[in-house]
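Structure tokens please, single chain.
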Amino acid sequence: MTKVAVFGAGSWGTAFSIVLADAGNDVTIWARREEIAAGINQTRRNAEYHPEVELAPRIRATHDVEEAASGADVVVLATPSQTLRANLTSWAPHLPTTAPLVSLMKGVELGTLNRMSEVIAQETGASQDRIAVISGPNLSPEIARREPAAAVVACADEDVAKQLQSIIHTPAFRPYTSTDVLGCELGGAYKNVVGLAVGMAVGLGFGDNSTASVITRGLAETVRLAIKMGADPMTLMGLAGLGDLVATCSSPLSRNRTFGEKLGRGLSVEEITGGTHQVAEGVKSCHSLRELAARHGVDAPLAQYVDEVVAGRMTATATMDAMLGRPTKAETD
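Here you go.
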């Protein structure tokens, strides 16, 4: 039996806690709001996220960081990516010094352009062989309902990846291992930006030809950056790349695609965010990824134009016109 601390009681943190409990682990969820923790313990449900799913007795919750981390064999981090560093500032002193630290987050930090594994290393002092990433086509409502799904567990230390694989494998959740942390993180972050672009196309009333074209060119853009940064391009052809991209761009459950649809219909970022408590990671990461691509000399029109729309400098219609008006070239250029 493994004791796992999950920091984050949101949609994905709660769904992943269900996976962990189904695999036979004891799970303690840290919740930012005390009422969420109390509700989980009293009703066996997270009333704000997945209220229809009953949580197993193996899952308990707390608002106390020290209590959540105490005795944990594995620590899972499931907060919005742009708040991770601030959270780790207060969490780090309480985290066990030998436990693997697992990131469920898919973003690139504004300003620093750091990936989440890099933020974890900087704020905790953990070595790369203790930091892992889990990524793939994992829409949290479907995971919470125990619908079949697969994911990638990536860590520089293959033995740690295999250890984590063994504690999250359930009849409904099939994990594969990888040592390409960089590729998995880039795939997870970039697919959110592509999801926004696909959503905008849908919001503008375009059909499958348009969305398929955006998905394909988005994948090409992701692979260009991944190769330049030293990732394995085959990672982007797998679950953490193409798999996650397909799920995000094709499902109405995707926050980023839904956000993009509203942008396509003419709503502003402020109008959309005012009506939801869910975070669409691509809204922030589009600027970080645009800057990251520029830093590495990679052409990234999708990230560029999505960033322009999110910043309010272009409309979705103007973006589509600009992309179609780019000079033609060979597909592999």
